[in-house]
């Protein structure tokens, strides 16, 4: 622009000089030249102006081009950001899916745990109910009622404490589980493994608590006698291992005997089938059979003595004891095992039945292939082929079908019988 102004000033100067000169040819040539110069200068000025405009346009173009470059760079950056974002989204989706699976597994694990816990609690509640029933039984019993009551109340108290401890343990663990679950939701895998470990520890401790709560309960009459040495004869609740609790008649003389068979008046029918002999029948305060499953539980893996007390119809009382007494499990048909004999009732009446399986009117396990001994002699016993004793026979008859002990010196039919065990 500056050069254009200089030209304009020059043109004005030339124009004013031509006005002062007035010679003939020289003036004419001068005028032509002057006009030509003005035209050229005008063209020059126009060209200058165009050049100047072009320079301006070029600057604009350069600026725009730079801006386009910048925009392309920005665009690339955005595109890269978008790709990263998309990848992250896919990863996040996968992570969410796998977390959902883990949460589902966790939920089913926790709900199965809850079922176990509930089952455990309901078992314990059933035990409380059983204990209440026992207390009622004992209240109507005439023998040793006060001792028995105080013994059972003490056991109930211990049980209540144990029950409370288990409930506290469960609720504490559930609270811990909740916290761990929240942690898991935040951090994923590691926390889940920790949670599983915690659950294992928890179920282990529940099992131990359950087992320890059983230790508060007497296994047999001997346990009751040890805990309460002044206990008198009567009906007590016992808890043989591996089987349900049962009511048993306890003979508390000489360290506490658990009576498992008693006959004294013929009120109870003893001609029964396998399942009744398995789980027991009759009234423990009167005539009864404790049950083969309990006798098995009480005698297995222990060193037990069997004592049989008998009184015949002439009121002569005698007894027989056998060491190493046990009966095998149901799979072996509650087979009888006895060791050496002592007493005055004669050994062979039961020794003849040693190592025999139990037979009832609906299960013939005896050694006679031609006869069903239980049916033939209206009893249930460890029949051989068939018997030298039949203490579960028909109380009302005095023949082979009756309550008989062959090796008794005089009359061998019994008015009263008691079979009991004591173990070390
Ligand atoms: Ca047979």
TrEMBL record:
Residue ranges occupied by any Fibrinogen C-terminal domain in the UniProt entry: 212-424
UniProt KW keywords: Coiled coil, Disulfide bond, Signal
Signal peptide range in chain numbering: 1-19
Entry coiled-coil feature ranges: 61-88
Any single GO CC term annotated in Swiss-Prot or TrEMBL for this entry: extracellular space
Residues annotated as transmembrane: none
Listed InterPro entries: Fibrinogen-like_C, Fibrinogen_a/b/g_C_1, Fibrinogen_a/b/g_C_dom, Fibrinogen_C-term_domain, Fibrinogen_CS
NCBIfam families recorded: GGGWT_bact
PANTHER family for the chain: FIBRINOGEN/TENASCIN/ANGIOPOEITIN
Protein's UniProt name: Fibrinogen C-terminal domain-containing protein
Organism listed in the record: Pinctada imbricata
């Amino acid at each position: 622009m500056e050069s254009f102004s200089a030209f304009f000033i020059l043109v004005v100067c030339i124009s004013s000089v031509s006005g002062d000169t007035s010679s003939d040819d020289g003036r004419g040539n001068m005028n032509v030249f002057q006009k030509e110069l003005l035209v050229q200068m005008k063209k020059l000025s126009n060209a200058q102006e165009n050049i100047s405009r072009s320079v301006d346009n070029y600057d604009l173009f350069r600026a725009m081009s730079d801006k386009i470059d910048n925009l392309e760079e920005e665009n690339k950056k955005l595109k890269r950001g978008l790709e990263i974002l998309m990848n992250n989204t896919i990863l996040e989706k996968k992570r969410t899916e796998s977390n959902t699976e883990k949460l589902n597994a966790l939920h089913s694990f926790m709900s199965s745990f809850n079922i176990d816990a509930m089952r455990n609690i309901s078992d314990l509640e059933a035990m409380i109910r059983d204990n209440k029933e026992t207390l009622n039984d004992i209240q109507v019993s005439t023998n040793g009622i006060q001792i028995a009551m105080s013994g059972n109340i003490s056991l109930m108290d211990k049980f209540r404490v144990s029950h409370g401890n288990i409930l506290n343990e469960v609720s504490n663990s559930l609270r811990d589980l909740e916290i761990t679950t929240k942690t898991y939701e935040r951090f994923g895998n590691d926390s889940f493994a920790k949670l599983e470990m915690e659950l294992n520890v928890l179920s282990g401790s529940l099992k131990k608590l359950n087992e320890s709560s059983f230790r508060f309960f007497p296994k047999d009459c001997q346990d009751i006698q040890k805990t309460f040495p002044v206990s008198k004869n009567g009906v007590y609740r016992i808890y043989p291992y591996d089987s349900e609790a049962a009511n048993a008649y306890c003979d508390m003389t000489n360290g506490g005997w658990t009576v498992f068979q008693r006959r004294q008046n013929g009120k109870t029918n003893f001609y029964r089938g396998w399942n009744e002999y398995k789980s027991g029948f009759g009234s423990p305060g009167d005539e009864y059979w404790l049950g083969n499953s309990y006798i098995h539980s009480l005698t297995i893996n222990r060193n037990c003595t069997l004592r049989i007390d008998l009184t015949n119809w002439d009121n002569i009382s005698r007894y027989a004891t056998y060491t190493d007494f046990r009966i095998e499990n149901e799979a072996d048909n509650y087979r009888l095992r006895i060791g050496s004999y002592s007493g005055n009732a004669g050994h062979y009446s039961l020794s003849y039945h040693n190592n025999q399986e139990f037979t009832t009117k609906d299960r013939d396990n005896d050694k006679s292939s031609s006869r069903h001994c239980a049916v033939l002699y209206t009893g249930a016993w460890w029949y051989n082929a068939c018997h030298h004793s039949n203490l579960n026979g028909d109380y009302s008859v005095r023949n082979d079908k009756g309550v008989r002990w062959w090796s008794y010196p005089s009359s061998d039919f019994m008015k009263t019988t008691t079979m009991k065990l004591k173990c070390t």
